[in-house]
Specification:
Helix content: 25-40%
Strand order of the largest sheet: 1-2-3
CATH topology of one domain: High-Potential Iron-Sulfur Protein, Chain A
Largest sheet: 3 strands, antiparallel
């Protein structure tokens, strides 16, 4: 006969497996909907000069920035449907403004 704690361990294991499968197959867009926005005070955002509005980039600090560059046309960005925000591979676990910019900008091919 299976002991009670073994059944609980199996149930916990199965729940973890189901959760892992759900996360694995979720699209980046569906996960981005739940992500908090990157705060300007975030250390990575500060290091990369992230701004929510690309027209406010400090040109002296980031001379490589071009007026046509924004998160919306960056390779790192995945648009969130019906939103001005999306997931960014640089800021894992957070979303960025499609009008934003940072020094990790890479144009989409």
């Amino acid at each position: 006969m299976v002991e009670r704690h073994e059944m609980a361990d199996r149930r916990r294991f199965l729940n973890l497996c189901v959760g892992a499968i759900a996360v694995t197959f979720a699209t980046p867009e569906s996960r981005a909907a739940d992500l908090p926005h990157v705060a300007p005070a975030d250390p990575t955002a500060q290091a990369l000069g992230y701004v929510e509005d690309a027209t406010t980039v400090d040109a002296k600090k980031f001379p490589q920035h071009q007026p046509s560059q924004a998160c919306a046309n960056c390779k790192q960005f995945t648009k969130q449907p019906d939103s001005a925000y999306g997931a960014c591979s640089i800021f894992a676990g957070k979303s960025v403004s499609e009008r934003g910019w940072c020094a990790a900008y890479v144009p989409k091919a």
